[in-house]
Design a protein that fits this description.
The structure holds two protein chains of two kinds.
Chain A (H helix, E strand, L loop, with lengths): L1 H25 L16 H7 L2 H34 L3 H16 L2 H18 L8 H26 L2 H9 L4 H30 L2 H6 L7 H10 L5 H23 L11
Helix pairs in contact in A: 1-11, 2-11, 3-6, 3-8, 3-10, 4-6, 6-8, 7-8
Chain B lengths: L5 H5 L2 H22 L10 H4 L5 H31 L2 H16 L2 H12 L4 H8 L11 H26 L2 H9 L4 H12 L1 H17 L2 H6 L7 H8 L6 H25 L9
Helix pairs in contact in B: 2-14, 4-8, 4-11, 5-8, 8-11, 9-10, 11-14, 13-14
Classes of the chains: A mainly alpha, B mainly alpha.
């Protein structure tokens, strides 16, 4: 039984990793072919590093991920604060469910719905289509919001009310009570919301696909366009690099801080 | 308790305004576009023209269902065996499971295509062994395989999480009370992990039914799913309305099926991404 379960785990993981390992190995293939490995070479990495478009896409992805996750975190944190103090349960529930719509909906529906909004507004204003950085920013903030709320809201619910009441009794204004007493306690939730938003934004392809324009390309959009027709072999190098970076981050998050507190890495 | 301050009252305002402008309004525009023609006049014509897409819908639902069932059949034992491993091994396995989830879907799909393609490694290997070529890319099987490959970790993770939370004493108790291991499995473990199964099914079914990249790559453009249809219709402004109608139908379909599934689990499953 032991052997059976071990070999089952091994086989499934081997199948799961076969294509990824193949991709990494063949990114070093001199010949630029998938059929045979002719020799070890870094030529595709060299080509990738000379590819200005790829670097631009990486830069755009980072700008978008940082700004959208920051904006979503600020809006979502204050949103959670407001919802926490809200008395009308049905409004609270309604806001919560509406915020969760982008998380529940398939990405393609969220993408086309945002696109229709932008198209309709552009038509209404009689301007040209304004798809680009700003529309992508709006879309990314929108799909990050539920994740921020999901990580921050439980922290508010765990807060001890008597602490902020004590602060108010001792002469704090409500906003001071929030910034000095409540905020430090919900920081872990804010940080995980921010990280979650950041990775969601970096990873998103489908929603971006519908609200983007060719002049602002993120890394996933770049990969999509490059893999649409004939593939440059430097794409293998790019994918291999991304996998290596993710592996490094995962290993650091999971094993470097292991003596302290686990669970932080699980999302 | 003191009354709420202006600060507390207004804190959620930006959030609510944002949600109305960019979540509610886009949904309303989907409905608006679905029920109007190109000139913005109310019409049923988009829904009337949906009949020609019925095959696409049936195919997509069938593919997504098959992929979900295969993921469950492969994933449930995997999660079970993983939960029985030593804590240290579990941690390593969890990282190994999460790495593909964190890799972009495009990369995973593309890597799989590179392996299975007619000129890919698998086929050149088979040919050199004299076994002839295996045509996977461009077939129904290829697309379903792509879905299973891409979304299997999303099935395993929630089931694994509920299994690790499962109280071992229940299993011991059932053994003490005379269940054999099969009965323990069907009468104790399975019912207690239903919530994980439900969220796993949701997390595989929803992206499977709406995908277009997988069918583009592993279907080699020969297989048309709902996702492909929507994507294509939204490339041309004159077909936005039909596209909106299809999106609306798909959204309703998913809300209904997720709603039905959630009725089977007593708690709300918890979304674990």
């Amino acid at each position: 039984m032991k052997i059976l379960s071990k070999s089952y785990i091994f086989i499934i993981f081997a199948l799961l990793y076969a294509p990824i390992v193949l991709l990494i190995v063949f990114s070093f293939n001199e010949a630029g072919s998938l059929n045979e490995f002719t020799g070890f070479s870094g030529v595709w990495y060299k080509e990738l590093f000379n590819d200005e478009e790829a670097f631009n896409a990486l830069k755009n992805s980072l700008i978008l991920a940082v700004s959208s996750s920051l904006i979503a975190t600020v809006i979502g944190t204050f949103g959670a604060l407001g919802l926490h103090h809200m008395r009308k349960k049905y409004i609270k529930g309604a806001v919560n469910s509406v915020t969760n719509i982008p998380m529940m909906n398939p990405d393609i529906v969220t993408g086309v719905s945002m696109m229709l909004l932008f198209v309709a507004v552009a038509g209404f204003l009689h301007t040209q289509s304004f798809l680009g950085f700003w529309t992508m920013l709006v879309a990314h903030v929108t799909f990050n919001l539920p994740y921020v709320l999901l990580s921050v809201m439980p922290r508010f619910n765990q807060l001890d009310r008597s602490l902020s009441e004590a602060a108010l009794d001792l002469g704090c204004t409500p906003s001071q009570a929030f910034f000095k007493v409540e905020l430090p306690q919900i920081v872990p939730g804010i940080v995980s919301g921010l990280m979650l938003g950041f990775t969601m934004s970096l990873d998103d392809f489908v929603i971006s696909h519908f609200v983007s324009s060719p002049d602002f390309q993120t890394l996933p959009l770049y990969v999509y366009n490059q893999t649409a027709h004939n593939v440059k072999f430097s794409m293998y190098a790019l994918c291999a690099l991304i996998v290596a970076i993710i592996l490094a981050v995962l290993l650091i998050v999971n094993f470097a801080g292991s003596p302290k507190k686990k669970g932080a890495a699980k999302r | 308790m003191k009354g709420r301050s202006v600060f507390q009252r207004m804190a959620a305002a930006p959030h609510i305004v944002w949600a109305v402008m960019f979540i509610v309004a886009p949904m309303l525009f989907v409905i608006y576009f679905a029920f109007t023609d190109e000139k913005g006049v109310f019409s049923w014509s988009n829904f009337a023209s949906l009949a020609q897409y019925s095959n696409v819908f049936i195919l997509s639902i069938a593919f997504a269902l098959i992929a979900t069932v295969i993921c469950l059949l492969i994933g449930y034992p995997l999660a079970y065996f993983m939960s029985k491993a030593k804590p240290k091994t579990q941690k390593v396995l969890l990282v190994l499971l999460m790495l593909p989830m964190w890799c972009n879907l495009l990369i995973r799909t593309y890597a799989l295509m590179a392996l299975l393609d007619n000129g890919g490694l698998l086929n050149s290997l088979l040919e050199s062994l004299g076994l002839g070529k295996l045509h996977i890319v461009g077939t129904n099987f290829g697309v379903i395989l792509g879905m299973v490959y891409d979304f299997l970790p999303y099935m395993v993770l929630p089931i694994f999480t509920t299994m690790t939370k499962l109280d071992r004493r229940y299993i011991e108790a059932s053994a003490d009370l005379g269940c054999n291991s099969f009965q323990t499995m069907t009468k104790v473990v399975f019912p207690l992990t239903v919530s994980g199964i439900i969220s796993g099914i949701t997390m595989v079914f929803v992206p499977s039914i709406s995908t277009f990249y997988i069918s583009q790559k592993l279907g080699a453009g020969k297989i048309d799913l709902v996702g492909d249809t929507i994507e294509r219709l939204f490339q041309n402004p004159s077909t936005y309305n039909v596209g909106a109608a299809i999106s609306l139908i798909m959204m309703i379909l998913i809300i209904v099926s997720v709603g039905i599934m959630n009725r089977f689990s007593d708690n709300d499953g918890g979304i674990i991404v």
